[in-house]
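retry 2 of 3: previous attempt timed out while embedding adenosine-5'-triphosphate. Reduced batch size to 1 and resubmitted. Inputs unchanged:
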Amino acid sequence: MKRFLYVAGLPILLFFGWFVLSNGSENFYAPPLRDILRAFVDTWTPQRLNDDVLPSLLRLLSGYVLAAALGIAVGVAIGLNRRLRATVEPVLEFFRAIPPPVLVPVIMLFAGIGNGMKVIVIVFGCVWPILLNTVEGVRAVDSVQLDTAKAYGVRGFARIRTVILRSASPQIAAGLRQALSIAIILMVISEMFAASNGLGFTIVQFQRSFAIPEMWSGIILLGLLGFALSLLFRLAESWALRWYHGLRDAQRKS
Amino acid sequence: SEDGGGDSVDQVKVGVIPIVDVAPIYLGQQKGFFTNRKINLTMESGQGGAAIVPGVVSGQFQFGFSNFTSLLLAQTKNVPIKAVSAGVSSVGEQGKDFGGVVVNANSPIKTAADLAGKKISVNTLKNIGDTTVRESVRKAGGDPSKINFVEMPFPNAPAALAGGQVEASWLVEPQLSQAKAAGARLVASNFVDAAPNLSVAAYFTSAKLEGEDADLVKRFTEAMNESLTYADAHPDEVRAILGTYTKIDEKTRAAMILPKWPTEINEASVQTLADLGAKDGIFDGATPDLSKLLP
Amino acid sequence: MLEVQGLRKVYSTGGREVEALRDLTFTIDNGDLVCLVGPSGCGKTTLLRCIAGLLTQTSGTVKLDGHEVSGPPPGLAMVFQEYGRSLFPWMTVRDNVSLPLKQKRVPRQRRDELVDQALEAVGLAGTESAHPWQLSGGMQQRVAIARAVAYEPSTLLMDEPFAAVDAQTRADLEDLVRALWQRLKVTVLFITHDIDEAVYLGRRVIMLSSSPTVVQDEITVDLPAERDQLHTRADPRFTELRTHVYEQIQAAKRGRPASIG
Amino acid sequence: MLEVQGLRKVYSTGGREVEALRDLTFTIDNGDLVCLVGPSGCGKTTLLRCIAGLLTQTSGTVKLDGHEVSGPPPGLAMVFQEYGRSLFPWMTVRDNVSLPLKQKRVPRQRRDELVDQALEAVGLAGTESAHPWQLSGGMQQRVAIARAVAYEPSTLLMDEPFAAVDAQTRADLEDLVRALWQRLKVTVLFITHDIDEAVYLGRRVIMLSSSPTVVQDEITVDLPAERDQLHTRADPRFTELRTHVYEQIQAAKRGRPASIG
Amino acid sequence: MRSKALLGLSGLAGLLLVIELLPRLGLVDDSYLPPTSEIAAALADELGTTAFWQAVGDTLTGWAIGLLIAVVAGVLIGIVVGAVPVLRAATASTIEFLRPIPSVALIPLAVLLYGTGLGSVLLLVVYASFWQVLVQVLYGVADVDPIADETARSFRFSTWARIRNVLWPTALPYVFTGIRLAASVALVLAVTAELVIGAPGLGKLIAVAQTSGAVPDMYALIAVTGLLGVAINLAARVFERRSLSWHQSVRGEVPA
Ligand SMILES: Nc1ncnc2c1ncn2[C@@H]1O[C@H](COP(=O)(O)OP(=O)(O)OP(=O)(O)O)[C@@H](O)[C@H]1O
Ligand SMILES: Nc1ncnc2c1ncn2[C@@H]1O[C@H](COP(=O)(O)OP(=O)(O)OP(=O)(O)O)[C@@H](O)[C@H]1O
Ligand SMILES: [Mg+2]
Ligand SMILES: [Mg+2]
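retry 2 succeeded.
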């Protein structure tokens, strides 16, 4: 009960506030929440979810998984190797600063306009928090732990797997968490180009055809989607990092 | 604007897309057609209606530029806007229009009818591009329901076409000239197929401003009409002014086809656009009410 | 054979220069058990790290069996002074102890056997599935010891390994180390600040001076090889030796060699 | 007065339930110096954390001067067993020591004086500007001690505070604690696993049993108040007391009270 | 330090070389991805115009103000929410709900409120980069070593002192990562906002170059955006080295 209040309390309050404040709204672009909710029910039919949300989700997840693999792998390499870091960091920073919308055309040159392009756009956008956090996490591995591994001949891949990744995992988790919502954002951006279905495409389409309550309902759906995914993420994280949370909470709570 | 005919100059912001179509307003600004009428213009450029319409509705911009299908769409949703002057029109001649569908030189697509069942890029789905291209196919005897449209901004379309990612592209100037120069072949003039002398776009304002400051709207319309007429009569000056607000290189500027800028909105052609849109279902079953939109 | 020759180590981090070791020279035969004592901060840990190849010396050489040490040599086990930080918090006690064995490709069954034995020996049977941070300080230290013991190393470096355990457990662990040493003929270098422990455990005791650090003195512990907590410590020779070491350490702290008494 | 009554603490993290303390009852008068000994893992640290109000007990009460402890009481200083992690790596030694004083709003000049004195007393003069991770283990531990000493607490809790220092330094620090105690009339609760140290330092020694933990025994150290390393330790009464404690600890490890000898 | 700069330059040089070679070898059509030399020539032309520098100034203004707001708000809110468990539990779901809403979806709202002015850019920039900082701070606050925190508590540090002396230094490495993430997200959003809404700045120039088919100009401007990113990161790194000299990640860099 208390948990439920924590999770739902503030959102309910905010929605209620929105509902009341927007009730008499005359503004075309900020319609009453009542209308938005009605549009939500009408718009997001199972058919629509299947046609537009499902493909988006699939692209989103494949992009996210790819970004996670790439970000962690490259991040570990860069974090461990000072020279490599010095060499590639400026190039990475260069690409990181380029807005995905202007990069999409370049990606299209190489990857076409299919799902591949959209997945690459998602990867391109959400790999950064994972990469950066992995690099920092790897750099911050406790020196005594590293020495222990070295002294006992734990080297190569085993050292990375059993020591470095585990030790950096709290920070990597921070990156993965960031990347999740960025992936959703990038999903929308990628569907602004050469798309003919998808949640992002639909929202943009609503926006262009002045179906404003429908557009807001799409934004709410995005929020719900993000919330659901982050819930899943949190479950996975608390499982993978149970040692860490145990360690941090051990003295604090008990 | 408060004192109507006084000495004060109205500061007016116009939301435009920085493309060929809006050359007259830049030209008119340069020629002083607006300052003559106590209007001090500022151009705000946005990428399409998504950015411009909210700006006009909320009063951030006094006027905006948009194509008619978008305006009709807005009208069906009761967006409080009103067209105030013509914007740009099709040249009306097959093969000589400022927009059209192109394919690669070696493409098996020879006529508009062949476009049926093909993958065609348009800048925006469910808008003026796909409805008029469908009409081209329909008129040529093809099945328009089979066309597979994909959305792609004009600047990126030539690369996608050349790379074989789409089989045909609907382009407007300057991309049309650039693509043709690179070897692409024109297979349809969709604006021409849709209606004779199609009115493509218009300048519009919010219903609120129209009600509150009819005088300003009137002066703007007059200045606009003068600009349109002047631009239509002085293509060289149009080509020159393009160099100031776009980066189209000189060669392309000289080669490209300029649209027509009549001062009258061709109501019949707008009705045709409305009918085409309704036929393709882009209005969600609603019927646009032209009388509420047109001046 | 472990040869340390002219070893010097200067730390220079953040504008601060510390000469931790000035000039150390000594050798340890294979299968010897040497205790190292010296004032706090004199450079014992630094020395151990250099020997383990974890730290690069400023000058001088460390050779193991004739080869210069550049990285941790195979068959080396080390118990770190920072026992808490040297355990991996994401692993259970069992995994912590068995990880090095896995690296050594000890077959699974044998590994489990070794881990169980080692944990039993340090008195931690029953905590296999706990994480290190669920254990008390002394228990953590014993996990680190168990890890080194289970590894069956050929060289064992221990840095104040019994600092956090109670007297009784300490005595048991001392006997454990001697038993291991005798059974496996492992070379042991053992840092301690407990003089009795140094004399009780070692075949030799090396005393370091305070900074700038050199070898202050060295004695061979000529007590019988079979030692036990009650009798050995009661031996008059034991008392003699410990007094000698004590005096040297005090002299070291004052910064000059005591007249050998 | 510190009253501990029926204290019980059960850890339950990650599915593992450990009864660290079963039922502890004892009192410590203000200005007393009590040493606490017990087998490794018996719950000494847990007890100290409960007294400091850092950990909530499962049942029982801890009262300081009649008030139930719910958070750290004012005027309390604690030296943690994990000395390394209790120092802030981002601060210099000086800042680490003076930060609690700043919190106490000790004026700047007095603060500097106290810090200098404390560092001098633990033998760390000259390392003020170093960071903790540039120091040896024993030096880090002494910084933690200096921090507690400079604070001039009214209650001082120390958890194996001399575990990482050499014998000579340890003796000096023991005398430092006794001097502080006598000078400031501070209440000291001191955990150690060194029985000699417990008897030498304390006015009372409380012995804990091994898990499940209760108070195994308690003695009053009836040695003269003026103690020194040489004579006190040579006192026959000292030997008697230490033997008693030793036997109780051994009995505790076996899990039953020894017949009091 | 010198050799590090050299390595970094060689990395960038490699990138330039690849872009030069891709079109020259005919792997891509040079009218869509021109070689480095052509981009450089276009860039040189741009550098000579005042409009360009004006645009860089506009973009950087939007970026800096937006980033500042986002960082300050992110850090303050992050610490308060992170340090008070009740707040953290109560806001978690709302944060997760708001975070994935793309800034681009807020464009109509921004235009509605602020037109094409700086306000629009700021709204988008702050919205996007705020979350980056916030999430990093939340994770950083959770990373406090329990023993260090207990030490502070046992000495009865005030809440503020605990935040300043324990929480903040622990979270600092996370905050730096957050700032570096936010800095580039802010740049991305500043440029995107200009691109789509048409607020003055580099993005607007890019949009104009794009619609005009001036491909080398477009790439030149994109490159400028990227280089701004590199410069910003460089500054962040220097700052980080100074304030994190005690941290494992920085002190580990010094060869032992
Ligand atoms: N990482 C470091 N950076 C700078 N100085 C260091 C570092 N590590 C150790 N030192 C210095 O080197 C000297 C020797 O340190 P070391 O840890 O080897 O001492 P030790 O003999 O092990 O002491 P203890 O018995 O207290 O553990 C000390 O003065 C210490 O300050
Ligand atoms: N955070 C924790 N979670 C679970 N169990 C714990 C935790 N901390 C301590 N314990 C358990 O509680 C018992 C007592 O631990 P405690 O640290 O109090 O012992 P101690 O007397 O201080 O031992 P030592 O002398 O070795 O430091 C141990 O069995 C330990 O495993
Ligand atoms: Mg040491
Ligand atoms: Mg303890």
